[in-house]
Write a structure and sequence with these properties.
This is Transmembrane 9 superfamily member. By secondary structure, this protein is of the alpha+beta class. It has two domains: 48-159 and 167-280, no CATH class; 285-314 and 335-494 and 512-648, no CATH class. It contains 17 helices and 17 strands. The chain has helices at residues 5-16, 18-28, 86-91, 125-136, 278-281, 286-322, 328-333, 351-376, 387-398, 400-413, 419-447, 456-483, 509-536, 544-571, 578-585, 588-602, 609-648, and strands spanning 52-58, 96-97, 108-114, 121-123, 140-145, 148-149, 151-157, 169-175, 177-178, 180-183, 186-189, 192-201, 212-222, 230-231, 237-238, 256-258, 260-268. Strands 1, 2, 5, 6 and 9 form a five-stranded antiparallel β-sheet that branches. The protein has a four-stranded mixed β-sheet with strand order 3-17-12-13, with no helix packed on it. The protein has a two-stranded antiparallel sheet with strand order 4-16. A hairpin with a 5-residue loop joins strand 14 and strand 15 (237-238). The longest helix is centred in the last third of the chain and has 40 residues, at 609-648. The protein starts with a helix and ends with a helix. 37% of the residues are buried.
């Protein structure tokens, strides 16, 4: 039995923040090189063992990760699972040891992994059927050596139409290696792995022994049938020469005999340990990424500047007209936002739910801002497995104090009195929806026996974090926010509500959502493609500097669009702006939903029910969270704007 995972998660979180302490220490005393992210390099001597571990099996077609030993691979004498942090568990990682024997800078031509020369591995009919099913579902196997993931080299030729001599190789890498392949309705298994490991030789003094560091881990998977592999009694084997061999077929209707073999080749590299992740992080065309982001940023800045100029000039003209004492009668006869000054701060319906949702939005905003900023500094790079998700979970819990404070103060401003119920609503409404959807999806993943299913101890740990950390902090923040002086509104509210004139068609709520969502979505839809690729196609996401810039642009564009929309609404003499502005400001979430459907149809090859359910379930959570985030940003921008403009005019 494995020990409970919540103790591992807390221990690992402490380790994730260790780099900050080390950084401070390195500033105060004369230390050697400091490596981000907080993992000291491991120095190997000649013939030191380099452990190969397995992480999981993944497929972009099924979105269901599985443990390595869910398939009949060769097993060591004792299976040992690595203690995982919370993020690794939620991602479906189950890091486990393997029987591969790899020694530093020691070559191996060919070695049988398990079985003997006269006794190959026999797969039962059930095992053969399972392996064939996984291969047909395009599963990849993920291994690590010295915390470096294995990659398969792909050589593409950029000049297809030119002469062969002029063709330029474009080398790319894909994560893991394919479990097998299909050809003419026959299924073949990659049963031989050629490991290519690169090392960097460290410069040392003459008297000391050389040390080596692993800087790259590649694999060339091959399928070689049993008859073409010659094995001896010492577990060594001889690979067939050239292309004379046939691949190892897996017939799902009968037992299959085969050898699992591997070879090891070492090469020296100039890449230093601190730069060893660069290979994995430049798997796509970075130039296109940079150009697209810069292009969207320039467009958004340009549009934002135009909007700002128009709104400021119009407002100055309005305020100047409203403050002319001699023309006050003429002004009052015209329509305008000043006419609703006695109703603009009238509390909306369901103030408790509104303040609770906005409190959760503040909680999300603080969490996302800190996570992106810390990741931008390199503290949450892909080499710290699960660190990003672990940090996000804990930060969301601790940001409850800020969410509770903002919700409590707003609730009091909206003339609310039941602060205890409001605090409970803030602490449970959004997290409860997230937990409910995740629990339902988790039941389906459990049914598939996938490693992506959150274990019961981890679920209990998350509930303890929710009710033991987040709930008390929300109550604490809500108590102080409710006791604080409410927001000072510049005008008094009339006792009798003003009649709202009939609104034009373009003031419809859904039309407002469509109009308001375009600009913020345009700021981040390029980045959204890379984020979706990282989530659904097992790619690494690393451009957190750009993501931070895009996040700032998103905040600016949401604020400006929200101000424009509330200005139009007040000019139409409709003072019911609280809920409408919150909904309309999150309009870009609608476009995220449309883009997610487009991505599902055009980019993913998902056809089964449960993978589709997982995709749209998690997409619904993303859209809900994004709506809360952008709606909260827009609401507070509009609230500040409304208070400013009504404070600038003279009210009799």
């Amino acid at each position: 039995m494995k020990p409970t995972l919540h103790s591992w998660a807390r221990t690992r979180l402490a380790m994730d923040w260790l780099p900050w302490s080390l950084l401070l220490l390195s500033l105060t005393c004369d230390t050697g090189a400091f490596y981000v992210p907080g993992v000291a390099p491991i120095n190997f001597h000649q013939n030191d063992p380099v452990e190969i571990k397995a992480v999981k099996l993944t497929s972009s077609r099924t979105q269901l990760p599985y443990e390595y030993y869910s398939l009949p691979f060769c097993q060591p004498n004792k299976i040992t699972y690595k203690a995982e942090n919370l993020g690794e568990v939620l991602r479906g990682d189950r890091i486990v040891n393997t029987p591969f024997q790899v020694l530093m800078n020691s070559e191996k031509k060919c070695e049988v992994l398990c079985g003997q020369s006269n006794k190959p591995v026999t797969l039962t009919v059930e095992q053969s059927r399972l392996v064939a099913e996984r291969i047909s579902e395009d599963y990849y196997v993920h291994l690590i050596a010295d915390n470096l993931p294995v990659a398969t080299r792909l050589e593409l030729y950029s000049n297809r139409d030119g002469d062969d001599k002029k063709k330029e190789k474009d080398v790319q890498f894909e994560h893991g290696y394919r479990l097998g392949f299909t050809d003419v309705n026959k299924i073949y298994l990659h049963n031989h792995l050629s490991f290519i490991l690169y090392y960097h030789r460290e410069d040392l003094e003459e008297d000391r022994e050389h040390t080596y560091r692993v800087v790259r881990f590649e694999v060339i998977p091959q399928s070689i049938r049993l008859e073409d592999l010659k094995a001896d009694e010492k577990s060594s084997c001889t690979l067939p020469e050239g292309t004379n061999s046939s691949p190892q077929e897996i017939d799902p209707t009968k037992e299959n005999q085969l050898y699992f073999t591997y070879s090891v080749h070492w090469e020296e590299s100039d890449i230093k340990w601190a730069s060893r992740w660069d290979t994995y992080l430049t798997m796509s065309d970075v130039q296109i990424h940079w150009f697209s982001i810069i292009n969207s940023v320039v467009v958004v800045f340009f549009l934002s500047g135009i909007l700002s100029m128009i709104i400021i000039r119009t407002l100055r003209k309005d305020i100047a007209n409203y403050n002319k004492e001699d023309d006050i009668e003429d002004t009052m006869e015209e329509s305008g936002w000043k006419l609703v000054h006695g109703d603009v701060f009238r509390p909306p319906q369901y103030p408790m739910i509104l303040s609770s949702l906005l409190g959760s939005g503040i909680q999300l905003f603080c969490m996302i801002l800190i996570v992106i900023f810390v990741a931008m500094l390199g503290m949450l790079s892909p080499s710290s497995r699960g660190a990003l998700m672990t940090t996000a979970c804990f930060l969301f819990m601790f940001m409850g104090v800020f969410g509770g404070f903002s919700a409590g103060r707003l609730y009091r401003t909206l003339k609310g009195h039941r602060w205890k119920k409001g605090a409970f609503c803030t602490a449970t409404l959004y997290p409860g929806v997230v937990f409910g959807i995740c629990f339902v999806l988790n039941c389906f993943i459990w049914g598939k026996h996938s490693s992506g299913a959150v274990p019961f101890p981890t679920m209990v740990a998350l509930l303890c974090m929710w009710f033991g950390i987040s709930l008390p902090l929300v109550y604490l923040g809500y108590y102080f926010g409710f006791r604080k002086q409410p927001y000072d509104n510049p005008v008094r509210t009339n006792q009798i509500p003003r009649q709202i004139p009939e609104q034009r068609w373009y003031m419809n709520r859904f039309v407002g959502i469509l109009m308001a969502g375009i600009l913020p979505f345009g700021a981040m839809f390029i980045e959204l493609f890379f984020i979706f690729s990282a989530i659904w196609e097992n790619q690494f996401y690393y451009l957190f500097g750009f993501l931070f810039l895009v996040f700032i642009i998103l905040v600016v564009s949401c604020s400006q669009i929200s101000i424009v929309m509330v200005y139009f609404q007040l000019c139409a003499e409709d003072y019911r702006w609280w809920w409408r502005n919150f909904l309309v400001s999150g309009g870009s979430a609608f476009y995220v939903l449309v883009y997610a459907i487009f991505y599902f149809v055009n980019k993913l090859d998902i056809v089964e029910f449960i993978p589709s359910l997982l995709y749209f379930g998690y997409t619904a959570l993303m859209v809900l969270s994004f709506w809360l985030l952008t709606g909260t940003i827009g609401f507070y921008a509009a609230y500040m704007f409304v208070r400013k403009i009504y404070a600038a005019v003279k009210i009799d």
